[in-house]
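Deliverable D4.2, example record:
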Amino acid sequence: VQLVESGGGFLEAGGSLRLSCAASGFTFDDYAIGWFRQAPGKGREGVSCISSSGTTFYADSVKGRFTISSDSASNTVYLHVNNMKPDDTAVYYCAALYGTVDWGTFTPWYQPLEYHYWGQGTKVTVSA
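Output generated by the structure prediction step:
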């Protein structure tokens, strides 16, 4: 099993990036893929998730600025990040979860401990 993130970098506030998460070694369509981030000195925060059925979830802090999408043909999940702010500076990770995710009736998508597989992360730095 492998998840490989890419697309991070350094940008100024207001800028945009596209982060990619390439998955292999498991049945991609059976898993929810989440994006998390961890800023220096802080815990891992759920940013967004796309379920196996294509339902999308976003943290309030990124709603309207981030968009998650999935390409089953290439087993890749993308996170389009727009209007970046210095507070978005973090290492961004993608993770895979087998099962149904939602806001809490089933598996909460934003809980990192629920995820089975993790990538190594890609760093995003946003300057003021």
